[in-house]
Design a protein that fits this description.
alpha/beta, five-stranded parallel β-sheet, globular, binds thymidine-5'-diphosphate
């Protein structure tokens, strides 16, 4: 079986990044070779574009955001994701095109057809083998990352921290619509409860992609994961 390309999606504060790192450590401790990466970013050019993209001093709109993030994505795909997969390493990527479809598309109102054309330019419509959507109510996600406080104090604030709740409500709905359109690719993980329960669901949702690894039968996630926050 070819090494899988997995993406982790959800609102900021949904727990996706924590569980991505935890799954990577869990797989590595069982002998799997894993590439952990993120968008926007993942390469030198990608990280440079990420800081431009998140910096709210620049006035942008959804289309400018999309152009930045797809430029980063193409570099990332060519330089990092495809080479890792070719070496037989599983790729665990924090966000991919789905983020653009919901944040710039549903959140900012950029028409989906435009984003899909850009996606074709940037990725040739490369889709992950599996996408885990970490689903929490936007109120919970905002509380977890302290976005509201950050937005109030202005410290370390990105252009997305500055968004109001309705933006995140639209984004969440956008994600759920993507799941309806492609139910075979997505696994929706309720991450509003205790972390251990969420991690068990994460393991169950990827077990079929790692035939050489023994996964827990049910429930127990194993106690060997590193500490985590949020
Ligand atoms: P992320 O790295 O998940 O944030 P953090 O490091 O704070 O956990 O993503 C940064 C922000 O960029 C996030 O608010 C979502 C946004 N984003 C888009 O709007 N479109 C995209 O295509 C991507 C990849 C991210």
């Amino acid at each position: 079986m070819a090494a899988p390309f997995l993406t982790f999606e959800g609102l900021d504060g949904s727990g996706k990044s924590t569980h991505l790192r935890r799954l990577a450590a869990w797989l590595e401790s069982r002998g799997e070779s894993v590439c952990v990466t993120q968008e926007p970013g993942g390469t030198d050019l990608g990280e440079a574009l990420r800081s431009l993209f998140l910096d709210r001093r620049y006035r942008t709109d959804g289309r400018i955001e999309a152009l930045l993030v797809f430029a980063s994505r193409r570099h990332h795909l060519l330089e990092r994701i495809e080479p890792a997969l070719a070496e037989g390493r599983a790729v665990l990527c924090d966000r991919f095109t789905d983020s653009t479809l919901v944040y710039q598309g549903v959140g900012r109102g950029v028409p989906a057809e435009l984003l899909l054309s850009l996606d074709e330019v940037a990725t040739g419509t490369r889709r992950p083998d599996r996408t885990l959507l970490f689903d929490v109510p936007p109120e919970t996600a905002r509380r977890r990352v302290g976005s509201e406080e950050r937005a109030r104090s202005g410290e370390g604030v990105t252009r997305f921290d500055a968004e109001e709740l309705p933006f995140y409500q639209r984004v969440r709905k956008g994600y759920l619509r993507l799941v309806e359109a492609e139910p075979e690719r997505f696994r929706v993980i309720d991450s509003s409860g205790p972390r251990e329960a969420t991690f068990s669901r994460v393991l169950a949702s990827v077990a079929d992609l790692f035939p050489d690894v023994r996964f827990p039968q049910s429930g127990a996630a194993g106690g060997d994961a590193p500490g985590e926050a949020g």
